[in-house]
Structure formats: structure tokens, C-alpha cells
Amino acid sequence: MELEEAKKLLEKALEEKQLCVVVGRCKVAYIGRAASKLSEGDRLLVVKHDGTFLVHQSTKMAAINYQGPGSKTSCELEHDANNLQEKKPVALVVTAKRTLPNGALEKIDCRFYKVYAVNCYSLQDDEKLQLFGTERQLSDLLMQDLQLIEKGLIPLRQESDLRKGSVDILAEDAQKKIVAIELKRREAGLDAVTQLARYVKELSQRKNQTIRGILCAPHITENALKMLEKEGLEYYKLDYEIANPSAKIRGLEKKQQTLSQF
Amino acid sequence: MELEEAKKLLEKALEEKQLCVVVGRCKVAYIGRAASKLSEGDRLLVVKHDGTFLVHQSTKMAAINYQGPGSKTSCELEHDANNLQEKKPVALVVTAKRTLPNGALEKIDCRFYKVYAVNCYSLQDDEKLQLFGTERQLSDLLMQDLQLIEKGLIPLRQESDLRKGSVDILAEDAQKKIVAIELKRREAGLDAVTQLARYVKELSQRKNQTIRGILCAPHITENALKMLEKEGLEYYKLDYEIANPSAKIRGLEKKQQTLSQF
DNA sequence: GCGATCAGCGGCACG
DNA sequence: CGTGCCGTTGATCGC
After folding, report:
1. Which of B44, B121, B242 sits opposite A34 (nearest CB)?
2. Rounded distance, CA B245 to CA A30, Å?
3. Per DSSP, what are the bridge partners of residue A20?
4. What is the pLDDT of residues B183-221, one digit of tens each?
């Protein structure tokens, strides 16, 4: 496709706030929070009406270059500086600009040497994704019956706010000890343990009493478990099933109990 | 476009390992690590030859539903179960399946009631992104002149592996004390502090001596700084510039000139 | 808007 | 493979 034609199509569609899809051979340059260069190759460019700008290669899930909502897209034809007689442009440069929260400018240049297609659409879509099996949903389920984890466990509050971050669930055990429960919907690693440790430490100081900490996850890495035990925290294997459209906790196995409560 | 035609086009292109772009009105259902539903609306579907499957709405950067490389995409026509006389299909169901590392199945159904366009391309692209201003690059620069942070600081090693995670830089100060340096290319929050604290704790126990910990970032949040100080750790403001195609730590150049005078 | 955290995080590097 | 962690993380939610 002629670059001039591509430019016209694209500009009209951008004006009309359509979703634009451009396929062609291009170089990409980015500067902003970081900087990048991508040599010439065939790519897919998607520009959404909210400013979203996505450059995709033919593999991988993630866009190779991108810019989020709020970006302004414009395009310019580029001519051969060494041959100004030639009226045919050398490239179509599609640019997305955006001002970062800190005031700096972020920019992508997508320099098309060939354009295979420009296709634009007005998409009607007011629907929102309904997602099931999130951490929040599991938390809600757990709150309904903390006895699953341990007999005598009474819920105090959910998403209790601490000054630094928040524990998923705060509870009280049969011995009236406060229990902080950190919930993970997937395998827990070192970060999950440090997170729980931080909450427990913070709470202990604030309440001036010993606080139990329970990490609740479907699985835990070896290192994480070691560190957990070293910190005097506990792990409970959380088995759950995702059934569309709801999640169910399958049953909770008690893995370890510290002596700290005695 | 007729659904039958869309199916033929898509199947042929998938067979030929092309990049496929489908635009149409669809419902989306996902089940796998979690589960989701998305009611009828106009969307953009991209299927890459490596199996990548992306459903985009008309806003936001992230795909609303997706599946990574390795997925298998297939499509089927769906007929009205209440009117089997009718030969015209009701929907074109495009499905991506994938086996998760843990052996479970992950699946997206994209049920198109209308297809506005099916466009497929064979893209040639062997280029890789050159990215500048990454944490690793900053680390390399810092290693060249740790004096920037503190006089007398000598580099010991980079990316020193601990059993749990790794410190970006390990150094020795003028008093022969070991210093663990954690580098962040952007604002450091509580997570960065807990990360550094974990490294320092681990190192202290292993080396059986007091270890200094320095968090190096362009900015730090208030809470993070408070916690840092409470933990006896230090913060060094790292100012750097991204210049395409290289990053420079502000002040480093000057320092090098100073050194070259001797 | 800042800040903290989740995410079906993805992707990478290393053991 | 798992494990850990960076990322131009993005997106969400609370303050």
C-alpha cells in the first residue's frame, strides 16, 4: 500500500477515534522511562481510541513497544533528504507521545517503510470482565468459615489497614491471640513470606503483643518455607477449585503449628 | 462477513502459521488459573503463530483475555440447537487451549456472533529489542565507580547470589565493612526495603558480622524511608539520565574526569 | 493524585 | 524444570 494512502486512512480513523490496525515493515524507537531501539522488521501496530499504542512482533504475548492510554498519536511522511526531487516518501512515521506523571515526555516512533494494511474499526463494547478466583474472592470465602484453617479462629476484620500495607485477614484464635493471615492465590515465594513477616512485626509493635502469622497458599517454595519457619510463622496449604463462575475452597490442611502460642 | 467464510480464512491462516487478526462481536469465556466471563461486545482478536492469543477491548493497554505462546487455536461453527433446520451457523467459536506447567488445562473460548474482518499476514522479523536504562545497565555503571555513593567504597561483586534471592552489588567500605547495595531504576517502595532487609539479614547471619545495606533509587516513598531508617539501612538518591542508546548516572562523568586528572 | 498491592502478571536468567 | 526477580511492568483500590 502507498504510504500516502496509509497516512490518510490512519489520520481519518484516528480523528474518528476508531481502533486502528497497521501491519507493515518498520523500525521502532522509544524514549521515556527507559529507551529502546528495534531494527527493521514486520510488525503489527494497534492504536486504540483511548491512546493505547501497541507494537507487536510475530511472537510473544507482550507488546515489544507500547504506550498506555492518554497517548497522542500522529503521523508524518518522511522524504529522502538526499533526493528532494523524489516526491514519493521513504517512510510513514507514526508517533505516540505522552506526558508522564512526573512531567517528562514519553515517545515512540514507529517508522514504517512498507505498509501492508491499514484497517480501522469502530468498536462498541460496554462490557466489563467478570473475573473469578481472585485473591479477594478467596478471602471472602475464607472469612465465611475460618474454622477451616483452625478450630476456634474468629474473624476480626478483612483487609485491615495498617500504616504499611495491609493484612488480608485479621483473626483471633482460641487463646485470644491475634492472627494475621496472608492469602496467596498462587504459589508463595520469598516475597510472600517477607510481606507477612513485615505485617506481623508491625502489628506486634503496635499492639505490643505477640502476633501469629499464617501464610495461606496452594503451594510454597522450599526456601520460602524455610524462611517462614525461621521467622516463627505458619503455613497452611490452601486448596481451592475454580468453578466458573465461583471459586471453592476444597479443604484446608494444617501443615505446621508453632510453639509460640504456649 | 459470513461466519463460514471467516472460519475458512482463519483455519487456512492458522495452518500456514500466519499472524491472524479477527475483529468482531463476541463473548469470551476463560477457565484455567482463574476463570472469567465477558459478555457480548466488539473486540479485536490477535493470534500469533507461536500460539499467543490476545483479546483486546477498545480501551486499555492490557489484553482483556489472553493465552501465551504454546497455545493451540482451533475454531468451530455453532448452530442453533433449537432450530436444526437452519443451516446458517449462529456463532464462530475460536478456542485456544494450553497445558499449564502443573498439568492442568487452560482454555479460552471466543464466541463470535459477528465477524467484521479476518486479516492474516506472514510477518518476517528476526530483530530483537535493544533496551537501555535497565537496572542491570545502571548496575554496570555504578560498579565502575562506587565512589559516587561513598568515598572508599570498593566493589566486591555484582549480582552476588544468596541462597535466597540476590543482592545487586556487594561492596566493602573504608572501614572494611561489607555493604549490600540494592538498586532500583524507579521509585522505591516498601517492597524494595523489605527486599534489602532480607538480604542484609541473610548476609549478616552467614558472614556472622554486621552488614550495611544501602538502597539506591531515584526516589523513595515516605513510608519506605521510615521503615528503612528503623531497620538501620541507608538510602542514596540515584540520579540518572536515559540518553538513547545509553544511560548515564548524573555526576559519574564529572567524577571520571576528576579521576583522570591524577 | 500518591501509594501499596495484586496479577490468569509475562519474561528472563540461572541453577 | 523450578526459583527468584525485573518490568517502559499494568491495573485496581484506598486514602
Report:
1. B242
2. 10
3. A47, A120
4. 999 999 999 999 999 999 999 999 999 999 999 999 999
